[in-house]
């Protein structure tokens, strides 16, 4: 860090910036909402669906792979039935945990076991902040969110589309996004698993950054996962060509697929949560199994994104009791198969970072964290059912993540912390503010909030009477003013620039999403 | 219900009013944050404190009771040392659960086991709402909150001082409050355990309401607990005369004492949470034991209200990771002694019902509910560190309580809810909106929110762009407009009026708090 940067950091001193990057673990037994017998019943229902109803796979190579693996395939209908023995054999080949590498190895992410990795939103159409309101996302917004993701160590990885760069031509968005991602952060990186051509570009750019240890060839030179993305299921029971192209390309290269059915109970599945989970489980198992057909041992995550529709409006509902059940029981199912589990995040339908935004977010994050979710995307800033990312909510939610870091550490119970001598010394009716025991721990003992206001009413009012969103507004602007990019070898930067320039010429006017 | 009332109720139709009064239970194993060995270590540390440091009891009768029970008493110092054998023997006499009776027996409250009882705030100095801002509480405000507590079936009991009636002379406040409480609600009732004279009035008024089954005599005619209150400890290690007068009077009459140390770690105890909990446990056990000296088998609740101070401002901090640990481990300690457990609530230091108010509340309610807290006071509306009660936050928090009711019911997994036939019938790529299975459950399957806004951004904006607090404002006013008092025998009402009138004359100018 140069002297100017050091000076800046001293000046800012937000407790948010003092939190070191580290692996987060939940040391307690997972919260469970279904009995082992109920989990078995869901499991058997899923196998029944896979054997008797089957799943659409709208991609010729995927159908070939299934046929070779021994599944019953109807090529004309692009439909596959999966025998329970085949599915379970394939699923058992997936690793229970793995390390997702960052370009800065100190920021590698452990996925699995009782670890928890938080990440920013992905795929958001609009950005919103208190001054400028809601508008279509731009590269400028995306870069700001990448910088915030880099600075907030409560986040373990960065993501494409923290907001969509809507002014950039669709065919070259992935190139510019990923270049910005590698330049502005050194954390593990998501980039879109959209078909074969985009993923091939992503792998080529990852190869430039990760050098000899790159993974794009799939020839055995690779040394592990460096890039990943969500593979969504078009629920009910359908994988489309775009997602299958991404799944096959990433899995073949040993990269990370987050297999995630997106089910709104009552719309994409029967209305009952039991049915939604049985269907989610069937869909997820099919996708996980396919990654293992492509490459046994490929890193893969069992994802869930099941919630309910609002039956009044037909809109998705987030942060609901139904969503909490699905999160918790989804984790139980993933554990049954010894698979890492993905859930989300700071979900809400609120349009503004108000009390609703906060309570719906807590109703997602609490079950997520307590259920042993391993990878939590959209952990900050998500709003309006996933259409919008809010700068202020990014900071508001980061406070909750920081609290979970502290909370999950638990507290020590030993002679020193029991401090029976101090209790005796101070005695009845005394006070502990000034004791040596308190003074020695004054500034380190408690979680240090960066957003909470604990002033008295009159002082708070005199200071402007700002609510949490207004305070968050000041904080994200202050953070951005102090951003310093992580070091990147100029040769790598130049190679990325060259690659992007060449591919932009090649892809001009091409539709990668047809 | 008369015709006019029926018409009104039809018109309102808030889902909040459709929730029936019922016992709430947490069917899952409790969340635990300490190992059995750690709990034992805290237990032993508490016994060490009771034996070697001791506790102040600033009341002559309490000292007499302790001396008769066999404790070591220093009358001059008003100090008592409690032998571990004596404490544990007394604590074992307290009932593990009991029923707290309401004047409407359909609203009796079960305290203990895995049941959860929610109640409104108590002891708040100010009221706040969006139109009128923050002001000292009045009887008018208190009555409004009593009405809301009566209407919201997510609350199991009502309370004195939902906001202090600051315009009423202190010496007669308890009389007017309790008369209003018995008139405006038929739920189980708290009234101040402040010394001997106030509690005697409370018992006399309860006798009027509960008739032959009253409890004021302590002569064996009583048929259980009908009134209760918090007995706060003046931490560290001191019970004052006011609280001891209340404890002795209520316990002798078989009424409910919520023994609750209020500890801010770093101020009223050493700064470490382990020490705070060891001290809390010592204080709580001493109070529980005293109730059993007074009357073996008296209903009593082990309470915890331990959190940390904000070391920057010296103010209490609520909704913190430290507070969550204390809540969870406090519940583990109460279970070790087979005692019902009290925790709180919708705690926050926010001055306005914003995101902070919501996240701090969730950081208290989630650990409370998951840890098997049996009685949760201050479950709605608490703000500003307990100084203020907010009409809007009352409704915002009621939404969370209603969500917990739904969440803790879990969901059924059986042939009907798995709906494998519907999954087969709709098949890949179809939709489930219109199926008979969905349509039959359309309006009943999901938790029905009364405050969440799930409209699209443009519709929300067109409808005024209201945040959660603004919507809550409309809702509490609508509820109050439709309030109907529960039936009360006119003879009882008259007897209460007579009692209050007589006692107001007797107490005029008297200081009950000297």
Write out key terms for the chains shown:
homodimer, 514 residues, alpha/beta, eleven-stranded mixed sheet, four-stranded mixed sheet, 19 helices, 21 strands, 15% strand, globular
The total count of helices of chain A amounts to: 19
Low-confidence stretches of chain A: 213-221
Number of strands of chain A: 21
Q: Biggest interface, which chains? A: A-B, 123 and 122 residues
What's the gyration radius of chain A in Å? 24 Å
- Return the average pLDDT of chain A rounded to an integer: 95
Tertiary shape of chain A: globular
Query: Alpha-carbon distance between the termini of chain A?
Result: 46 Å
Based on the structure, what is the oligomeric state of the protein chains?
homodimer
Largest sheet of chain A: 11 strands, mixed
- Strand content bin of chain A: 15-25%
Q: In percent, how helical is the residue content of chain A?
A: 40-55%
Q: Helix- and strand-based class of chain A?
A: alpha/beta
């Amino acid at each position: 860090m140069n002297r100017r940067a050091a000076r800046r950091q001293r000046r800012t001193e937000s407790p948010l910036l003092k939190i070191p990057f580290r692996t987060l673990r939940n040391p307690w037994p997972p919260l469970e909402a279904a009995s082992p017998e109920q989990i078995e019943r869901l499991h058997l229902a899923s196998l029944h669906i896979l054997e008797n109803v089957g799943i659409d796979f709208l991609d010729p190579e995927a159908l070939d792979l299934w046929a070779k693996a021994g599944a019953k395939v109807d090529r004309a209908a692009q439909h596959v039935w999966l025998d329970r023995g085949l599915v379970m054999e394939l699923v058992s080949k997936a690793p229970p945990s793995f390390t997702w590498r960052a370009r800065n190895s100190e920021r590698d992410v452990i996925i699995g076991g009782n670890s928890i990795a938080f990440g920013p939103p992905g795929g958001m159409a609009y950005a919103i902040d208190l001054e400028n309101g809601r508008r279509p996302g731009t590269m400028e917004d995306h870069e700001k969110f990448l910088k915030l993701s880099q600075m907030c160590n409560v986040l373990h990885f960065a993501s494409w589309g923290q907001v969509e760069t809507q002014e950039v031509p669709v065919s070259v968005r992935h190139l510019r996004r990923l270049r910005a991602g590698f330049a502005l952060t050194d954390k593990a990186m998501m980039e879109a698993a959209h078909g074969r051509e985009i993923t091939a570009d992503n792998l080529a750019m990852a190869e430039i950054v990760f050098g000899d240890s790159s993974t794009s060839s799939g020839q055995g030179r690779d040394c592990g996962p460096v890039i990943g993305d969500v593979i969504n299921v078009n629920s009910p029971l359908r994988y489309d060509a775009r997602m299958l192209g991404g799944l096959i390309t990433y899995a073949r290269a040993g990269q990370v697929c987050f297999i995630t059915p997106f089910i709104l109970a009552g719309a994409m599945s029967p209305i009952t949560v039991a049915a939604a989970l049985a269907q989610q489980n069937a869909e997820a198992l099919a996708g996980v199994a396919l990654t293992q057909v492509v490459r046994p041992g490929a890193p893969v995550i069992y994802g869930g994104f099941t919630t309910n529709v609002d039956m009044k409006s037909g809109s998705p509902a987030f942060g609901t009791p139904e969503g909490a059940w699905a999160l918790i029981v989804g984790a139980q199912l993933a554990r049954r198969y010894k698979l890492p589990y993905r859930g989300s995040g700071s979900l809400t339908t609120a349009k503004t970072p108000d009390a609703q935004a906060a309570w719906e977010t807590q109703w997602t994050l609490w079950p997520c964290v307590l259920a042993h979710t391993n990878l939590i995307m959209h952990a900050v800033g998500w709003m309006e059912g996933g259409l919008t990312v809010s700068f202020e909510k990014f900071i508001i939610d980061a406070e909750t993540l920081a609290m979970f870091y502290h909370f999950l550490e638990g507290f020590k119970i030993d002679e020193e912390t029991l401090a029976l001598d101090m209790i005796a010394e101070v005695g009845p009716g005394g006070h502990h503010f000034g004791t040596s025991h308190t003074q020695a721990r004054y500034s380190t003992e408690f979680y240090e909030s960066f957003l909470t206001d604990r002033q008295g009413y009159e002082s708070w009012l005199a200071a402007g009477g700002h609510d949490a969103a207004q305070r968050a507004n000041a904080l994200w602007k202050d953070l951005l003013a102090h951003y310093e990019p992580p070091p990147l070898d100029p040769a790598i930067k130049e190679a990325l620039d060259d690659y992007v320039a060449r591919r932009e010429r090649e892809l001009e006017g091409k539709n990668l999403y047809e």
